[in-house]
């Protein structure tokens, strides 16, 4: 490759200027088109690319485009980083006092809350695991993870609030279009605390399976579990399943197309 490049550097300046111009244009067009043929996904399994096709977000349509509960990291396996880089803004909720710091630094145009979502305001024990993606309010989940090989690193007290309080304080009581939910054992509780008659998100992406270290076991609890049945009872349909997360869309939004 180095030899060819050296030969090309010698030959190119000797070409007619008109031909040099055409070659430069061809290279520039190839380079520019490559940028348009793909988008970089920041989600764990490409969920943001699916959601991009479902949700036709309008810039500045609402103050906040999403609520991300259990946001974890501003870019790594994050369902909203793609939209942030497209100019949208949302609310990121992360209970871990260390993890939230990267949101303060890298997602300055978002609202970043160091709080855990629970059924009431107050304080609760928060279990910080050796793998931060498994951090949880649930003691049952934390000790289950230990049996599977993970370790509890620390138990800290964190402030809690119900989702309705977040909506009332920051969203005028109304849901943004997109809810990303990864609360490690608290997902169904959070969903059940929503006042569905008042407001609901158009799209929900939620981790819908228990943590299982063996890949084949993911298929054992794919879609028709309690959480899926609950959201179906609230007029949602499953649009996509990525072995990790399930994407639900409200049927009213589907019908309006």
What do these coordinates show?
- There is one protein chain.
- The protein is of the alpha/beta class.
- It folds into 2 domains: about 1-35; about 45-110 and about 170-255, Rossmann fold, CATH 3.40.50.150.
- Helices cover about 35% and strands about 20% of the residues.
- The protein has 10 helices and 10 strands.
- The chain has helices spanning about 1-10, 15-35, 45-55, 80-85, 100-105, 140-145, 165-170, 185-190, 225-235, 250-255, and strands at about 65-70, 90-95, 110-115, 115, 120-130, 150-160, 180, 205, 235-240, 245-250.
- The strands form 2 sheets. The chain has a 7-stranded mixed β-sheet with strand order 3-2-1-7-8-10-9, sandwiched between helices. A 3-stranded mixed β-sheet has the order 4-6-5.
- α4 (about 80-85) links the parallel β1 and β2 (about 90-95).
- It starts with a helix and ends with a helix.
- The relative contact order is 0.12.
- The model has no long low-confidence stretch (mean pLDDT about 85).
